[in-house]
Automatic annotation (TrEMBL):
<dbReference type="Pfam" id="PF03392">
    <property type="entry name" value="OS-D"/>
</dbReference>
<feature type="signal peptide">
    <location>
        <begin position="1"/>
        <end position="19"/>
    </location>
</feature>
<protein>
    <submittedName>
        <fullName>Ejaculatory bulb-specific protein 3-like</fullName>
    </submittedName>
</protein>
<keyword id="KW-0732">Signal</keyword>
<dbReference type="InterPro" id="IPR005055">
    <property type="entry name" value="A10/PebIII"/>
</dbReference>
<dbReference type="InterPro" id="IPR036682">
    <property type="entry name" value="OS_D_A10/PebIII_sf"/>
</dbReference>
Length: 124
């Protein structure tokens, strides 16, 4: 019990000190590999994000945070979300370059953020 309280207070304190309110971790346990390795699933997410089809709840959530995440190099993302953002973005760049181009046209039409976001994608 004592350990749990210490852990809880340290997490709250670290959040207050950093001043960053992270995105919800509700969808952090989604199997991203299953999605990017399935044309059907990946197409559903891509169509949602590119306004070409309906969105699931998690698709809407992702779509909602994308503009800010790109503009800030995923500053409010937790480590898992950063890993997923890199994996999916790099997959699209490599295997679906036309989709990546469409994505950038929607979420960074003025190309203000792509250079810094590309830098974020190469970080480990």
């Amino acid at each position: 019990m004592k350990f749990t309280l210490v852990l809880l207070f340290s997490l709250v304190y670290s959040g207050l000190v950093s001043g960053i309110e992270y995105y919800s971790d509700t969808y952090d346990n989604i199997d991203v590999d299953a999605i990017i390795n399935s044309d059907r699933l990946l197409n559903q997410y891509v169509n949602c994000i590119l306004d070409k089809g309906p969105c699931t709840a998690d698709g809407r959530s992702i779509k909602h945070i994308l503009p800010e995440a790109i503009a800030t190099k995923c500053e409010r993302c937790n480590d898992k979300q950063k890993q997923v953002a890199r994996k999916v973005s790099n997959h699209l760049k490599k295997h679906r370059p036309n989709t990546w181009t469409e994505f950038l046209e929607i979420y960074d039409p003025d190309k203000k953020y792509i250079a810094s976001y590309e830098q974020f994608l190469t970080q480990a």
